[in-house]
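Hi R.,

As promised on Friday, here is the backbone we talked about, encoded as structure tokens. Could you run it through your design pipeline when you get a chance and send me back a sequence?
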């Protein structure tokens, strides 16, 4: 079947974000700046956490992985989107399209699980502070990082296997700026209603499970913070607030795109841009602007230049 797919349809054509040349120029300018900020901001956080021994703690270890995943997730779609704004024919090969599907779900699924592990780390730090060092030992931290990558890979491969089994023999215009399962399914030369249910169940279970775990974790954290005095809980509340903002910004668009029964093309495109371009910019900004340790590390790094 895979050979049939590749011989029948060797490439797909993106319709892009819009058809107006003038608007595309503005998109090109903004997306180029945004991607530069994504690369510099997220890789700077990773570099700071690796080089500054004051940041060698479980929370920052997880944060470094979040920044790296954000960089990877944005790099799957943004460079291609930016260069396509300069072209009349926005073409991607069959293999490139399948690679985008795999990588978006790999990094996206991994980020969802990583946000859960970060919530668990904050739960232990705030609700069980006296046992934090013994619970969050080196081995536990390594597993908390490996599990998101493993689950993300399994999720991405499960989605890819389903898509590779589909026959693509006719339409090849993708009504988006990157290959994602909902839009690629529409191009299959067969009835995909059953597959949609299977794929939505696969993605839905992962999204809803992570979202519920996050709600439970942060509810317990906020209840614990509420029971403590204002002075001792202000720092914990500030840290949790930044985490909750990141969770809301990431899960909001994902829940709408993959679980909302009615598909609205322009809304889906906007939300896809949001979680692949905007969120990876906001994450480093949220964590650096609200975190004294990161700001101090940046100041030290600037002085050493």
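Update: got your reply. Pasting your designed sequence below so it's all in one thread:
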């Amino acid at each position: 079947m895979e050979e049939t797919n590749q011989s029948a349809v060797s490439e797909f054509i993106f319709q892009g974000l819009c058809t107006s040349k003038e608007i595309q120029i503005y998109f090109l300018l903004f997306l180029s700046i945004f991607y530069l900020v994504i690369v510099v901001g997220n890789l700077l956080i990773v570099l700071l956490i690796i080089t500054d021994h004051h940041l060698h703690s479980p929370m920052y270890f997880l944060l470094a992985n979040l920044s790296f995943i954000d960089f990877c997730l944005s790099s799957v779609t943004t460079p291609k989107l930016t260069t396509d704004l300069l072209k009349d024919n926005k073409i991607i090969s069959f293999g490139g399209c399948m690679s985008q599907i795999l990588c978006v779900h790999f990094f996206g699924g991994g980020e969802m699980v990583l946000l859960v592990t970060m919530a668990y780390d904050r739960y232990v730090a705030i609700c069980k502070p006296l046992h934090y060092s013994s619970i969050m030992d080196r081995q536990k931290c390594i597993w908390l990082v490996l599990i998101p990558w493993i689950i993300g890979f399994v999720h991405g491969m499960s989605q890819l296997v389903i898509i590779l089994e589909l026959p693509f023999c006719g339409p090849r215009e993708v009504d988006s700026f990157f290959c994602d399962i909902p839009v690629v399914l529409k191009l299959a030369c067969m009835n995909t209603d059953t597959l949609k249910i299977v794929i939505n169940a696969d993605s839905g279970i992962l999204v809803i499970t992570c979202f519920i775990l996050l709600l439970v974790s942060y509810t317990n954290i906020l209840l614990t913070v509420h029971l403590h005095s204002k002075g001792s809980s202000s720092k914990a509340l500030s840290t949790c607030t930044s985490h909750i903002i990141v969770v809301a910004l990431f899960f909001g668009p994902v829940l709408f795109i993959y679980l909302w029964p009615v598909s609205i093309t322009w809304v889906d495109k906007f939300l896809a841009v949001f979680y692949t371009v905007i969120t990876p910019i906001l994450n480093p900004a949220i964590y650096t602007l609200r975190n004294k340790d990161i700001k101090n590390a940046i100041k030290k790094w600037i002085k050493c230049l």
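One thing I noticed while checking it: The first strand starts at residue 11 and ends at 14.

Thanks again,
M.
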